[in-house]
Structures are given as structure tokens and as C-alpha cells.
Amino acid sequence: MNIKRLTPTLQDVATAANVSTATVSRCLNFPDKVAERTRTKVSTAIRDLGYTPNFGARAMAARRTHTIGAIIPTMDNAIFARGLEAFQNELRLHGFTMLVASTSYRPEIEEEQIRALVSRGADALLLIGHARHPEIYRFLEAQGVPALVTWAFDADLARPSIGFDNRAAMRDMATRVIELGHRRLAHISADTKHNDRAEARLLGIQDAMLSAGLNLDDLRLVETTYGIEEGAVALEALVTTGPSPTAIFCANDVLAVGALRRARELGVSVPGEVSIVGFDDIELAQIAYPALTTVHVPHREMGRRAARALVNLVKTGAPFESVELETWPVFRDTLGRVSDD
Amino acid sequence: MNIKRLTPTLQDVATAANVSTATVSRCLNFPDKVAERTRTKVSTAIRDLGYTPNFGARAMAARRTHTIGAIIPTMDNAIFARGLEAFQNELRLHGFTMLVASTSYRPEIEEEQIRALVSRGADALLLIGHARHPEIYRFLEAQGVPALVTWAFDADLARPSIGFDNRAAMRDMATRVIELGHRRLAHISADTKHNDRAEARLLGIQDAMLSAGLNLDDLRLVETTYGIEEGAVALEALVTTGPSPTAIFCANDVLAVGALRRARELGVSVPGEVSIVGFDDIELAQIAYPALTTVHVPHREMGRRAARALVNLVKTGAPFESVELETWPVFRDTLGRVSDD
């Protein structure tokens, strides 16, 4: 909730209601501690001024449901499962219930789901990534439903998030891959236009290439949708046509295990002929054979912290504070050194 | 909704409201087509008699939200993901939204989630398996929220479901395993006390053993929770202590891929020394190495049909019809023949 952008201000409400700003603030954050008459005056001023109610006004106006909505791009392949499980467990400790909606990575479905959860009375929402139509953020502010962004962290954005820097995480992995002698690089990515995490991961590879003096035009890019079969198809295209890469970055582990499977089916040795790295470190990464080298994401910690921040906000009105979590490369068996170059 | 168990009857309501039973039925199923005055009379009779409102009464009393709740045991490992995705896609075609809650396989959490979804206005619920406290079914009837059971089919139960016969499915697989010469059998199962699907799968193995003249006491049973690491631990216990099995049935693919991984780590050849079979045929089964022999479950069809049945019920009041879907064994690379017996 970027309160700075809201007009009129708290001061305007205080003046109109003939109370102090502290009283308005108390009304918003601790309505139970304010006399009925004062609350009514402040409510009226808020309504008359068209002051967009934020979470506090909502808390004053409506009974809390102790329900938090989580809107994730997919339930498939358990990409978000571990984080959500930690999120739900932490919510339960505080008497909150989680309801989940999934969007199939489609912005128009996300919008429907956000509206559904708001109209079903969710106290607050957990969202994945920053990128969505500004209208949605305005809708949430107008409805007084706070939303916390996770799975992303971008120091340049004012909107708070509890997540990690996708670009830096992939840059670190790409730097290590390049240090092992790889020059012919490829990237199997999700649609980077509607997915800020996928976009950031691509930028991270490019950052590392530029630092190493490589030409960005030499990165072969395949954009597809997240899926095991999609990763397999992309791998096949990369190794059977054009200049064959020695290392393939996959934008997530799901694409990577699909790529790995197809390499095995084609008799392409991993990492002997081609190295494959993933992103996320979900359980698939360890089930894959050979076990997948990937970027570890602290799913459980992210889920727990997001839950605490949302509970705290709903209960006390304390605004979110952004938290950047660390990620790191996990070296298993699919990344090798280039020796014959 | 087992309407037979409800008292008073539709006839009692008709008599009290001085209308025909057809009119009461029309009020319940197509409230929009009944005059306001008639609707009021019938409503009053329903209330005065304490006629437990079923879905129809609810449709008459409250605006539909076009939200269907799905309550699943876990989001982990995508066990339910493919079925839910098909369920959601089909719901969307009819203008309905899905909200999901997960229970961590714990009955007390399921009860919380059911209450949360009902109080958030879900028109109907999708539930997994039949086994839950009768009080929950009574609560749903009293609230007028219909619930459809999936992932299970039991011809002996009056409650409708759209699913498959877990017992027969595992019996078929066990019969094939025994035909390949396996006599020293083991089963890695979930807790069979609170999970009717797990219980049915165990019974299916026992059915096949009895048909083949085997002694049920010779089945080594490990009960654990569904998880990759749990499957790995169970496999290790089975191959390092006691009489070593030649075939291990896993109650789902998640346990099976964990067992497979630990076998590889211990240098136990699959299927050379021990065969491993799963259940569900989720994507993990194909990612595993060797690819997993398992029982195929028609996740997508189950999800689509469940969605159509629920939409139909909410829109027209048409009661559910039970549907039994087929399953079949999928033979990949983890089941071998016993030759040295």
C-alpha cells in the first residue's frame, strides 16, 4: 500500500472531522479503542472526502474474516507448493486460513481471481511478482485489501515485497557457468513479457555475459510455457538445429527436467556434451537424473515471512517492510567444465 | 446430498404451504420462475417446519457466488494439480471460479477449511475421498452447500462420487506383479486410518495376494506420510532389515520416486534386485529414472466431469450422478520378472 500516492491525505480527514491526525490514525488502526461517536465522525469525513479507504478503514468498516488469499500462477509441478505450505502453516499459528487461486500464468485470470477473493472477503492477498496492470493495484487500494508481493525483490520499486532478486540470482549462476569455459549459451525461458521473474532471469544471464565480454547476440533464446514437455521440445530444437550450445539455462526446474529427459532420450550426454541448469530448487531437481544443478530459492522462509507480515498488517495495521532473501547456486550433477574449446 | 435422510419431507412442506410438491420443487430448483408470493409461502413453511435447507433452498435464499471450493490434502508434489487444473478450466467455461484450500492430510484442518469456504460463500465444494466425520456432512447439508467426492468410487456408498475404485485399481496392479513371479512383497503406504484411498489400495494388494493363495502375513507394510524423503527412508528400512522384498508397492508416485532414488543411492538395482511400482501416474513418474511403472489415474477427465456435475447442480439443482472412471497399469521400467525363485 503506497500511502503516499493516496489523495486526499490523513490530514484532510483530520481537519474535516475536527480531530487530530493521531485520532484518525487510531480509528484506522485500532477502531476498538476509539469511542463510537468519534469513529462515526471520522468515517463520515472519509466518505465525504472520497478518501480511498486503505486496510485500516476496511478494518474499521468490516469484520475481519481471518482469510488470506494467495494467488499463484500455477499449481502444477509444485513450483509454489513448498512456499505456500510454509505460508499456510504460519497463518494457522495465528488463526488465519489460506485460500488459493491459480491463474495459469494468464493476467486476465489473475484479475478474475483477485476480484473473486476480494468479494469473498479476503482480509489480504499474497501475489507472485510485481508485474500487473496498475488498475489492479488501484482496485485493491480502493477496496482496502492490502497485497504483498513475493517471489520477487526489486530495490527500485516502492511497492514492498518479500522475495529475492531474480536477476542477481541468475547472474550469479551464469557467472559460474561462464567461468567453467562455456561460451555457446542458450536459455529456455517462459514468456518474458508477462512474467517479471522470467524477464529478470534473462537479464541476469545477459549481465553475466556482458561482464565476461560476450556478445549478447550469441545467446540462443527459446520462449515457451513452463512445462516438462515444453522443456523437452525446446532442448530438442536447441541440439538438433543451429549452433549447438554447451550450456543451457532453464528459467525454472520444470523446464530443466524436461530438457534433461529429452537429452537422455536423444542420447545427448549431460553434462558431457551439454550442461543444463535450472532455477528454483524444487523437489524435482533432486529426483531428476542426473540430479539438477540449480538456483536455490528459500521457499519456506519466504512463505513464513510473508505470512507474518500479512498477519501483522491485518491485526495491527503495521505496514509491510520489504525483505530481500538470499539465493545461491546448488551444484549437483548437470553442470560440467568445457575442456575441448 | 442424501435427501432421503432429511426429515421433514418435501410433502410436509407442500402441505404446510398449501401448494403442490411440484411447486415446492420448482421453488427449490428454479426460484426465478416462481411468483414472489408463492416463494415466500414456501420459504416460510420450510423455516417453520425446520426443513433442513438443501442446495435448492440455499439457491432460493441467497445469491450464488459462482465460487466453488476445492479442498485437497496437499499441494505438494502436484498429486492433485492436473485434476484441479482441468477442474478449474472447465469451471471457467461456465463462469465459475475455483478457490483451493489444502489440509496437509489432517482431518481437523479439513474441517476448518470446509467451514472457511462455506462462510466465504462457496456455492459448492469438491472433496477428496469419502472418509470424514459424519458431523461434517451434516454441517454441509444444514448449510445447504452440496459437496461432491472425487478421487474415490465405492459402489457400496450412497453418497455420490466421481472417481475410481482405488481397491480394484491396486488389485489389478498387484495381480500383474504376482504373475511376474513376485512372492516377497512389501507396501509403503500412507496412514490407512484417516485416508480411505490408502486403505483401499492396501486392501487391493491383499485381494490379489489371497487370489494367488499367498499369506497376508507375508506382506511387509510400512506406514508413513506421503513425501519423497519418506519413501526413501521406507525403502532403506525394507532392503536393509528383515527379509528383502522383490517387489515394493508404493501407495503413490511420490513415495515411489523417493524409494527409487534411495535404491539408486544404495546401489540396489531396480528392477534387477527389487521392482518398485507407484500409483497416480503424475508427471514425476516419467521424470523418475528408471521411469516408473504405476497405476494411471484419469486426472483430467475426473476434474472436468466433477466441474460439470457441480456447475449443473448449482445452476439447475440436478443432483449428482456417480461416475466410475477407469484406471489401468502403465508399464515403464521399474517392474521386472523374478527369475531366480
From TrEMBL, chains A, B:
The keyword Aminoacyl-tRNA synthetase does not apply. InterPro entries: HTH_LacI, LacI/GalR-like_sensor, Lambda_DNA-bd_dom_sf, Peripla_BP_I. The keyword DNA-binding applies. Residues 8-62 form the HTH lacI-type domain. SMART domains: HTH_LACI (SM00354). Pfam families: LacI, Peripla_BP_3. CDD domains: HTH_LacI, PBP1_LacI-like. Keywords: DNA-binding, Transcription, Transcription regulation. One of its GO terms (molecular function) is transcription cis-regulatory region binding. This is Transcriptional regulator, LacI family. It comes from Jannaschia faecimaris.
